[in-house]
Amino acid sequence: MGTTQLDTVPEPKYWHLKNVLAEALDSEFTVGEILPNERELAARFGVARATLRQALEQLELEGRLQRRRGVGTTVAPPRVGVDVSASPYDWPGIASDAWQATECTRAVPPATVARLLDSDAGEEAHVVRRVRMGHGQSVAAELLYVPASSVPDLSGIDAPSGPALARSVLRELARLDLEGQDRAVELGSAGAVDAKELDRLPGAPVLVVTTRYFSGGRTAAVSAATYRADTCRLTFGAHGDLEISHDDDRRRAS
Predict the structure, then answer these.
(1) Are 74 and 66 in contact (CB under 8 A)?
(2) Are 164 and 178 spatial neighbours (Cβ–Cβ below 8 Å)?
């Protein structure tokens, strides 16, 4: 990996350095190879470590690098396409679902989720945690929020806790008539729990897919799925639509 003079370039130093590093990753490194430490890289390029860190963070965001616990920064493999398309009339938990239920608890949803559910302040919901595997690793973690009103017969089911209770919630949810769903995708950063589930560092870039499921003229459940941004590119299938929002102005793009 060579050096470069950054003082005379018109673009931000970290961005130019990012491009130089990207070229080096293509020509001098192989997938899985560990990069030199930050001190060595900063000295080699004659930049402050803060500038280097910005460049490395951008490359991680673009899926070129991975930060791994106890290993360091490595060259990432090509992103894997993860299909997030779904029939607008399929509940989560159907036979073809790629997710595995791991836990179910009762908790008050975050304020953003509570607004989507139109639930009262302090009202608890069933929270089903699920994981999605791909190529031998966890690629996504999901929290599915299901109000008690959506599964009123759950109390009669003998499933005290854990994955069994999660599957029971999903089974009861599927008894409702699903009228449709909507979905939004945004860039986020991994919280402590999701980071551990996905083998990432807290704050690592992630893609958050929020899905609302509608039944009986209301929101029956809300899913917040967190995908690894470094290894995943989301695909929506042949009929997937992407909704682009600009404040109150919305338009649809295929």
Answers:
(1) yes
(2) no
Token readout for 149 is 């009103």
Report the run of H or E that residue 164 belongs to, with start and end.
Answer: helix 162-173
According to the 3-state scheme, what is the secondary structure of 6-56? Answer: CCCCCCCHHHHHHHHHHHHHHHHCCCCCECCCHHHHHHHHCCCHHHHHHHH
Radius of gyration of the chain from its Cα atoms, rounded to whole angstroms? 22
Q: Are 38 and 51 in contact (CB under 8 A)?
A: no
CA distances from 122 to 104, 107, 114, 203, 222 (A): 18, 9, 9, 28, 17
Name the residue with tokens 């900063």.
Answer: 42
Of the chain, the end-to-end C-alpha distance in Å amounts to 41
CA dihedral 222, 66, 60, 80 (to 10 degrees): -60
Note the pTM of the prediction, 2 decimals: 0.69
What are the phi and psi torsion angles at 85 (to 5°)? -70, 155
Residues in the chain with pLDDT values less than 70: 1-11, 80-89, 155-160, 237-254
| Residues 6 or more apart in contact with residue 43 via CB below 8 angstroms | none
Alpha carbons 7 and 5: distance in angstroms, whole number: 6
